[in-house]
Amino acid sequence: MTGPQHGGDASGLEQLRAALILPQASIHERDVFVEFLVAEQPFVVRFLMRLGATSSDAEDAAQEAFIRAWQMLNRGLWFKVREPRGWIRHVALRSWQRPNGCRRRDREIPTAEVPEPHARPSDGSELTLATLATRSALASLPGNEGIALALKMDGFTSAESAQILGVTDQQARDLLKKARRRLRRTLASEQPSPEGRTL
Prior knowledge:
Belongs to the sigma-70 factor family. ECF subfamily. One of its GO terms (molecular function) is sigma factor activity. This protein has about 200 residues and is mainly α. It has helices at about 10-20, 25-50, 55-75, 85-95, 125-140, 145-155, 160-165, 170-190.
């Protein structure tokens, strides 16, 4: 998100509060909304990245979702949303997925230097490789399976996920089971064998 940084820094929060002028919302409503934004924005970005969005695309889509929420607050509609955490992820996801939205951009190419072949990996590199492999496997999950798993990872129940996805509770549970099975298979197939070959 562009603008002030929201890393839990009290001065950043105060700057954001000072910048927001709402004709329709009370100061208390504005403060509650800002606290929601500060608390949820990094998790919305992470949610989208789990589905394959680049960091910048995820931030753009999250920003669009929070702008829509802001507009609703300004019209007095925000506090009528029953599940704000689910709503904001749903809107951010749709923003990222729409044909003329963020997702159409080419994926970013990593620019970090690749170590020489004889260089010994630094501590934690195996964890980084495992994280990248897991993230890639999550992003490869088809449609609602990936979304159901990403919602579960964000702490949503099957009932909440079902509401966000527009399916029944049982369908949401089935999507989650399929996603977990597919993720296990994908990660197992990428594990190197003792001879260094992929299984």
